[in-house]
Amino acid sequence: MRVMNAVETAEALPYPALIEALRDMFRSGCEMPLRHHHTVAVPGEPDATLLLMPAWVPGRYMGVKLVSVFPGNVTRGLPSISGQYMLSDATTGAGLALLDGAVLTARRTAAASALAADYLARRDAGHLVIVGTGSLSRALAEAHSQVRPIRKVTVWGRRAEAAEAVAADLRATLGCEALATTDLEGAVRRADIVSAATMSQTPLVLGEWLAEGCHVDLVGAYKPTMRESDDTAIRRARVHVDTRAGAMKEGGDIALPLASGVLSAEAIAGDLYDLTRGLAPGRQTAAEITLFKSVGAALEDLAGAILAFEASTAAKAQTQ
To answer: Which residues does UniProt assign to the signal peptide (predicted)?
Structure first.
């Protein structure tokens, strides 16, 4: 069985290939049972979350991810997300690969956002605003730059020094203009794409700030009590999700408006199954506001794990 550390997992998951792997998997589908979602008490700190996410393609591959989210790690200078992914042969059950779950999660999450933006963001979208400074902030900027001509990235975080650090990294890795800001409203009002990846309990991206033609990408606020956007954003936007079953239940940006009547299930324009299969249209006009809410799906992990395993296997064969 191949064991892939964080560096090896990242190298085997370049964003262009990963975005296309997700597109193909959403088009073809796989078996994806409801994931286990458990709250873990951490004395004196916010509750942690334990997730077990299985999926398989009959006769080909099966896998399961064990991942944890510990919000209190931010005070320790540690990543909030950690975990492992086990990929197996779906004919024999034999183990094939053990991948770094945190890297896989970050990269497939960013790739799913980029996949959605490929259908929903304006073709000329050049200004990306990143809300949040966690591990996903860099991944989201890199992934979005694969599908749109991102020329400028503005980073906002609760800690100005963290936003400055992310902006500096993006200047070095993407080679585009990247700067930090303390003025979230001003940045959002000028954005073509707003991508939020936070653990906020209350809205950060307000609908009244959104310019015509803006695309909003929400990947944080992973519990039904958490939220990154307000009701006005939901009312003004054409709403899409990664999977209906997950987003309608688990993400507060969708679950709370559904519960209050601000949003109806029928008003959700489509999910990634619909978009990739041509069952729902992407962006309709240059002026419309679009919104995508992601809570993650085991399908995405399986697609990434297969890509990483096959790429690693091919690379090893070339060196022999």
So the answer is: none
